[in-house]
Amino acid sequence: MGITEKRVRTTVPVHNRLEVMRAEHGLSRQELADKLGVNYQTIGYLERGEWNPSLELALRVAELFSVPVEVVFSLKPFRPMSQQLSELRKEKP
Is the pLDDT of residue 57 over 60? Predict the structure, then answer.
């Protein structure tokens, strides 16, 4: 394995779509952890919002999924995907 990830608890929660992104890519927590070089428990802590990712880990996650970091992590709660899709459908002619 590579880098040891330090979990940092703060008073500002970092919301994430990590579990959704992982499921969309058909990855288990262990598989995602292996790809990121962290312990599988770190993935669980992140998904449950018990720990915030380091900047480095957040960037590695975004790079792995080929998306901007703000697609996976946010300081504000994400709106449900169903709500966002419904709004997109209404915008199309």
Answer: yes
Query: pLDDT grade, residue 91 (50/70/90)?
Result: confident
Q: What is the DSSP letter of 38?
A: S
- 70 forms beta bridges with none
Q: Which helix or strand (DSSP H or E) is residue 88 part of?
A: helix 81-91
Q: Which CATH class is domain 15-91?
A: mainly alpha
Q: How far is CA 9 from the centre of its chain?
A: 16
Mean pLDDT, residues 52-72: 97
d(CA 5, CA 40): 11
Tokens 């962290």 correspond to what residue? Answer: 38
**Helix ranges (DSSP H) in 16-79:** 18-24, 29-36, 40-47, 55-65, 69-72
Could you tell me if 83 and 58 are in contact, meaning their C-beta atoms sit under 8 angstroms apart?
A: no
pTM: 0.76
